[in-house]
Design goal:
It is built from eleven helices and 30 strands. The chain is of the alpha+beta class and 563 residues long. Strand 27 (515-520) and strand 28 (523-527) form a beta hairpin. Residues 6-32 have low confidence and may be disordered. The structure holds zinc ion (ZN).
């Protein structure tokens, strides 16, 4: 999803996100220094406990009836799973006030017990490794209504400008179990999924993958059967039901012809036909930098939604008002962000980083948002043909970084890192590009990541190690610093006579990241600072002539004369 731009309350403590020029109040600072307190429910949701770790979902068969008249839903999900270790108790998740009506194992009714949003199903006998079974959960109720989607999440019951009903879901933070029963953990993706949504006729529902059938039912409803043939993250599954227009284009991409389907509200079709041409330039740029679009078989779709936008896999949702920038603003403050539509670019970048390469734990969501924000700079570079323009964009978003806490969150409790994961994540990647110092090699690193880890849920360490080894640079302390601490490295220097001295401060032990700097009059080169003072001969003379390449996200301080 896109970065938040307002203070908000979320999870077990107050999370503050960066807004350019925002000064934290005393109360705000106290709140963010509070140690988060996690509950039993956080652990049930965020970890692979003993009732989750012995089975893997291979297929979800989700069938939901959506009733705008009373804001209710009902349906069932057939959960097919492969037994990897002997087990008997199965943890599933469905958030109140939704109600589980029955749980069946191949025709046999099973008992279950609730534990908050989780429910535990006791199977008739211990199941054998290698076996495949299907548990079907029937449920109904009035799901949580999203207050400020996509960030808090749930259902949105709306009407479009012509008064037609318009219904959508967004649930990345709160979890897919806010509207359908599943194994609600980011490490779990089925190999494929059906999403059959029944809505009152003549509403049209757009979900993930391809439309396999449309059925006009006798009770005045229609069922839209969508099918995603690739592994899909559960938060990507979505309902988008309304009065939609539709057209399709074929894009000749790296893996052949790719269908690009566009679903704006009928009332906005003209605006969409103008604004959404950016999806093609997006596809060209991101296939160049990240490799083939990851889901050719399921296609690419852009679907209008009544909230800002979300990276729903193969059905990216859009609510940016058919204008450039982020709701008409440039998050970088440089003007570069007004040349393109933030939501088309950012949310589509997530098809590579979030949907193709998915973090196995919410704690490492920087891998989604850092890369997606970084992709905005690359898109600026593609659009302008200027590497400097892209760099300017990424440098510009630094003003939004708060360094309140690390961009890595806490594992096992569904707790993402700081909102800095967007802007700081992007700037860390931009800094690493400087270290790799070879644009083609850097591009191959980004493409290689998608090849190596595509269609998988991964750990941060896998991605970090791959970037270091394929980029040919030592990044252990670089990732440690930028991902797992809120400190910004500070280069201290002094010039005395013809000697330039320099060292790192505010760094993790062993931090020795090289930087490009002005070493002498008219000469830029590499410095290799450590935590100890080092020195080099220089003719810079005046302190003012020394500078570090601004593409490195570091601080620089003139330490003045030594005592
Ligand atoms: Zn995002």
């Amino acid at each position: 999803m896109g970065p938040r731009t307002l203070r908000h309350r979320a999870g077990p403590l107050i999370v503050l996100t960066a807004v350019a020029g925002l000064t934290l109040s005393g109360a705000g600072l106290a709140a963010q220094q509070r140690t988060p307190v996690f509950t039993h429910a956080d652990t049930l949701r965020g970890s692979l406990g003993p009732a989750r770790d012995w089975w893997d979902v291979t297929f979800y068969d989700l069938n939901v009836r959506v009733s705008p008249a009373d804001s209710s839903i009902s349906g069932w999900n057939g959960i097919t799973y492969l037994v990897s270790r002997p087990g008997r108790e199965l943890q599933l998740d469905l958030q109140p006030p939704l109600v589980v009506d029955s749980v069946m194992l191949e025709g046999r009714a099973l008992a279950w017990r609730h534990d908050g949003s989780a429910f535990f199903v006791m199977l008739p006998a211990e199941q054998r490794p290698g076996a495949t079974h299907t548990v079907t959960v029937h449920y109904h109720g009035t799901p949580v209504v999203a207050v400020r989607p996509p960030w808090d999440g749930g259902f949105t019951w709306q009407r479009d400008a012509r008064g037609a009903p318009w219904v959508s879901t967004a649930n990345q933070g709160i979890g897919a179990s806010v509207w359908w029963p599943n194994k609600d953990h980011p490490s779990e993706e089925p190999d494929s999924q059906r999403v059959a949504v029944t809505v009152p006729t003549p509403m049209v529902n757009v979900s993930n993958g391809r439309l396999r059938s449309t059925t006009l039912n006798e009770d005045g409803t229609s069922t839209f059967e969508w099918f995603a043939t690739s592994p899909i993250n559960n938060y990507g599954i979505s309902v988008n039901a309304g009065s939609y227009a539709h057209w399709q284009e074929i894009y000749e991409g790296e893996d052949g012809p790719l269908t690009m389907d566009f679903w704006p509200l009928a009332v906005n079709e003209q605006a969409a036909r103008r604004q959404w041409t950016q999806a093609r330039t997006m596809m060209r740029c991101f296939e160049h930098w990240f490799g083939p679009y990851p889901f050719y078989a399921d296609g690419y779709k852009l679907v209008e939604a009544p909230y800002l936008g979300m990276e729903h896999q193969t059905a990216v949702t859009y609510g940016n008002g058919y204008r450039n920038g982020y709701l008409g603003r440039d998050l970088s403050g440089t003007g570069q962000g007004l040349a393109w539509d933030y939501i088309i670019i950012h949310e589509s970048a997530h098809e590579w980083f979030a949907n193709n390469i998915t973090s196995a734990d919410d704690a490492a969501m920087w891998m989604h948002e850092g890369f997606a924000m970084y992709a905005e700079g690359l898109y600026t570079e593609c659009l302008t043909g200027s590497k400097e323009a892209g760099a300017e964009y990424v440098r510009g978003v630094r003003a939004r970084i708060s360094n309140d806490r690390p961009i890595q969150g806490i594992y096992g409790v569904s707790y993402p890192g700081s909102g800095d994961m967007y802007d700081k994540g992007a700037n860390m990647l931009h800094t690493i590009r400087q270290l790799v110092d070879d644009d083609e090699r850097w591009r191959q690193v980004l493409r290689g990541l998608n090849r190596e880890f595509g269609w998988q849920t991964v750990r941060s360490a896998q991605v970090e190690e791959y970037i270091a080894s394929e980029g040919g640079v030592d990044l252990d302390e670089v990732f440690e610093q930028y991902v797992r601490t809120p400190m910004v490295p500070r280069l201290e220097y002094r010039i005395e006579g013809s000697t330039l001295s320099y060292r790192w401060t505010d760094v993790v032990p062993g931090f020795a990241m090289p930087v490009r700097a002005t070493l002498a009059q008219g000469r830029v080169g590499w410095l290799r600072p450590t935590e100890q003072w080092r020195s080099v001969e220089t003719d810079l003379g005046s302190d003012g002539d020394f500078s570090v390449d601004p593409n490195f996200y570091v601080r620089v301080r003139n330490a003045g004369p030594a005592d």
